[in-house]
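Cross-posted from the bioinformatics board.
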Amino acid sequence: MLLGSIEAGGTKFVCAVGDENFQVINRIEFKTTTPAETLQKAVDYFKQFTELKAISISSFGPIEIIKTSAKYGYITDTPKINWSNTDFLGFMKNNFNMPILWTTDVNGSAYGEYVTANEKIKSLTYYTIGTGVGAGTLINGKFLGETGHPEIGHIRLKRHPDDLNFPGICPYHGDCLEGLVCGPTFQARTGHRGEDVPLSDHVWDIMAYYVAQAALQTTLSILPEKIVFGGGVVSEQFLDKVRYEYNQLMNDYIDVGDLENYITMPTVKNNGSATVGNFALARRKLE
Amino acid sequence: MLLGSIEAGGTKFVCAVGDENFQVINRIEFKTTTPAETLQKAVDYFKQFTELKAISISSFGPIEIIKTSAKYGYITDTPKINWSNTDFLGFMKNNFNMPILWTTDVNGSAYGEYVTANEKIKSLTYYTIGTGVGAGTLINGKFLGETGHPEIGHIRLKRHPDDLNFPGICPYHGDCLEGLVCGPTFQARTGHRGEDVPLSDHVWDIMAYYVAQAALQTTLSILPEKIVFGGGVVSEQFLDKVRYEYNQLMNDYIDVGDLENYITMPTVKNNGSATVGNFALARRKLE
């Protein structure tokens, strides 16, 4: 039995097939161009695998996840050119007569981390801090967000005293979480790309202060057993700074145990969380 | 069949018995003194009602709600004098041989609003803004917070430009949500009690800016179908200001429908949400 994974990003698609143990058997990446061309490439890829039994799609958004909506399975009004109002799930269903699961990119990653966590956990939040900022939360195997997917990337934060003049770069909100810590903020703040800014630069402390607040808000409003940070901005050294700021902000108010186990990098390496998550979701959809 | 409700506050206890339709049949209030005296009063009260079949307690905290914990049913390390490490649930169980439910004060109120909502809803967050700030969230009939109860009162917020010099009054965090908007902040900011500060005073706009952020963070991180605000600070006129600030902050990013239905006062009048919630929880515990 083979399971299919589509990790649909605004820049690239990653399609993969895996076995029942969620091991990758085959994998392909291609650039996200027009919907017609890109989705057809995904279809052509999976058509090669006759043993495929189910597919899970975790997609960039915003997407419609309310099953009773006429637009269920669509990418809705995205800033990504050509992709607004794309019936992604419908296109796949027209090509494959099998169960197909539909969820957000961060939910796919969250599920991958949930099923591969080193300890048995009941709840987990997965943040991605990259081109954008988003998060998915699982509680007892179910995604948080009954009426749609939350957009925690746009919460407001207490500003760092050394960063008060930076207006933030979110086109909707200016200095929301995403507008303060997504990858492109390095260019906006320093004129350099993030990978060229050494971790000794104070801008990383400012970033850590905000990301720690994101973790704090999550603890205080959801209290998951673990918070995982993925995405291009995150490294283990950066998370050390985040843990430090988190401790300062929390001030011993809620004990979440050892912060090294509570705020972590993904267990699945090489950005593979969503692929594993999709395999697991595809298998669950079959059952 | 009669159902029992204990709304245990740090200032007073409200005990009530109600029928299967959650109508109050009898009700008593008394001051919160020592644990021994106060809990005995609750016991004596309920002993009068031979038809009592179940009790639900929604208590001030922090409380232990993890069932596998040795301290399950306790009020843990509260600043309330004499009450730290009080085995509240155990005391009641020693006196009554019937199902007894144990949850937080805000969860009790959230459940009361959930079962009395005018429309059928799947999820709801209830905030109290009074002496302290807290919230309870229900999703599909279950409380959010598997490993303990969240403490959303202590999230950080973007500061209002006209309020930057106010340090906040939370002993743990200074300018967290509670430190910025709980009832006693009126005294700290203006030297007057909240009920003596007219709604035309700019301090109410500042309060609304922060409370709107609390609602916004809730929408963006949990996306409940409804957010209810109770507690002494809240009025319908104040919520109008909150809705205005919420709209500005959200900037059309997520459509939650008519804000008049999304951000509301409690449906149950006269601070009765927790009593109704307890009756409903007691009945559920019986089933």
